[in-house]
UniProtKB/TrEMBL annotation:
This is Ribose-5-phosphate isomerase. One of its GO terms (biological process) is pentose-phosphate shunt, non-oxidative branch. Gene3D superfamilies: 3.30.70.260, 3.40.50.1360. It comes from Phycomyces blakesleeanus (strain ATCC 8743b / DSM 1359 / FGSC 10004 / NBRC 33097 / NRRL 1555). One of its GO terms (cellular component) is cytoplasm. Pathway: Carbohydrate degradation; pentose phosphate pathway; D-ribose 5-phosphate from D-ribulose 5-phosphate (non-oxidative stage): step 1/1.
Length: 275
């Protein structure tokens, strides 16, 4: 039998990545691209030559990786992925792939978000990636969010209406559902299902777990909601990223503007400045 070994370029093309050509971008994609490019250009510089950078997951981060690919001065940096998707993109663009096992201290992580509030707290996990994202973000000295302007919010849960993503161990499905429903009577919790033409049954995360989406309306106290859900046995992670981001870049849909929200130290705490 003749075995044909595909060349690496064939392998690369076998993976369907989205076309990110600027001329064909929708307004939303252009907004994501603006935020991603600006964040890469401002947050990553050549002095990071031997740096370790974490890369989040989702559609916005694809633009950031494309920008890193364009910036030849950033090719000696090691990139730590937070998902299967991001790992494939790092390989696709021939960037240096690292692993959180090797680098427990990361210089900076850039990641997308589903919603960002006025304190830079975020909902994440719309694409079922949250556990690895938190793992890498927590190991990072700086955590930077990128999104289009539709993700700006006054209160988490008022823009991203699908609910808080919760990653759970499959065996704990019924008990976690029961406990959440008991704790928040008005919450609606659903097991996230895959698109039936792609896969029958539930969405399975990169870690072999399931995702619940927990709708509870606008959230007054995301820190406590995060903690209460996280403490339930069987919960691997909760898509509320509180007090983690230092800066968020939002790309405009109607103009070429990028709004930047960043934390500034004031007294004992910090305030978020908008520019
Ligand atoms: O699970 C996915 C991640 O948390 C993403 O970073 C988040 O959902 C934002 O994704 P996107 O950039 O596609 O809006």
């Amino acid at each position: 039998m003749l075995l044909i070994r595909p060349s690496s370029s064939l392998l690369r093309h076998a993976i369907a990545f989205r076309s990110l050509a600027t001329h064909s971008l929708s307004k939303a994609e252009r907004g994501k691209q603006l935020a991603a490019y600006r964040a890469v250009d401002e947050m990553l510089d050549s002095s990071l030559e031997k740096g370790i950078i974490g890369l989040g997951s989702g559609s916005t981060i694809e633009h950031a990786i494309e920008r890193i690919h364009q910036r030849k001065d950033l090719h000696s940096v090691v990139y730590v992925p937070t998902s299967f998707q991001t790992k494939r993109l790092i390989l696709h663009y021939n960037l240096r792939l690292g692993n959180i096992d090797q680098y427990t201290s990361v210089d900076l992580t850039i990641d997308g978000a589903d919603e960002v509030d006025a304190n830079l707290n975020a909902i994440k996990g719309g694409g079922a990636c949250l556990f690895q994202e938190r793992l890498v973000a927590q190991a990072s000295k700086k955590f930077v969010l990128i999104a289009d302007e539709r993700k700006k919010s006054d209160k988490l849960g008022s823009k991203y209406l699908r609910g808080i993503p919760i990653e759970i161990v499959p065996m704990a499905l019924q008990t976690v559902l029961f406990n959440i429903q008991n704790m928040w009577e008005n919450a609606t919790v659903r097991l996230r299902m895959a698109t039936p033409t792609d896969k029958a049954g539930p969405v399975v995360t990169d870690n072999g777990n399931l995702i619940l989406d927990c709708q509870m309306g606008p959230i007054d106290d995301p820190v406590n909601v995060y903690r209460d859900i996280k403490l339930l046995t069987g919960v691997v992670d909760v898509g509320l990223f509180c007090n983690m981001a230092e800066v968020a870049y939002f790309g405009g849909l109607e103009d070429e503007k990028v709004d930047i929200w960043y934390k500034q130290k004031s007294g004992k705490g910090s305030t978020v400045v908008r520019s």
